[in-house]
Amino acid sequence: MEFRYLGFDQQQNVRAYRFDVLAKGEPTRHVVITAELGLFLTHRIGIQEGPSLCAKKLAADLQNGAEGTHELLEEDLRAHSAAIASAEARRAEMRKAGPRRAAAGAPEQSPWRNFGLR
């Protein structure tokens, strides 16, 4: 199953993201998934992430057999925000772990490092 993002329509603080759902051997379906814009601000998620978040939510909905209306909910954005925070914490922990060790037999410092600094 593939999704083709077609754009969005906006009415006040709700965006309706439009997608075509393409499945082999089936006619193309037009699907809309809505998202309240205030939730993006609340969870500090960039609005430009809306289409990809909606596509993920849509894929999960369709895989579970959900038909009809689709909506990006607060728990979806909360889960995405938590995943971002967790990834950032892992990166910070990696930075705290200290410098990486050089491979065995490799020179301690590159001869290029001090090139021209004498």
Features:
single chain, 118 residues, four-stranded mixed sheet
Topology:
Elements lengths: L1 E10 L2 E9 L6 E8 H6 L7 H14 L6 E3 L1 H23 L22
Parallel strand pairs: 3-4
Antiparallel strand pairs: 1-2, 2-3
Task: Please describe what this structure looks like.
By secondary structure, this protein is an alpha+beta fold. It has a domain at 2-78. Helix content is 36%, strand content 25%. The protein is built from 3 helices and 4 strands; from the N terminus they run E-E-E-H-H-E-H. The chain has helices at 37-42, 50-63, 74-96; strands at residues 2-11, 14-22, 29-36, 70-72. A 4-stranded mixed sheet has the order 1-2-3-4. The longest helix is centred in the C-terminal third of the chain and has 23 residues, at 74-96. It starts with a strand and ends in a 22-residue tail after the last helix.
What would you say about this model in short?
The chain is an alpha+beta fold. Helices cover 36% and strands 25% of the residues.
Total beta strands: 4
Estimate percent helicity.
25-40%
Low-pLDDT ranges:
none
Which secondary-structure class do the elements indicate? Answer: alpha+beta
**Overall shape:** elongated
Spatial strand sequence of the major β-sheet:
1-2-3-4
Rg, rounded, reads: 23 Å
Distance between the termini: 61 Å
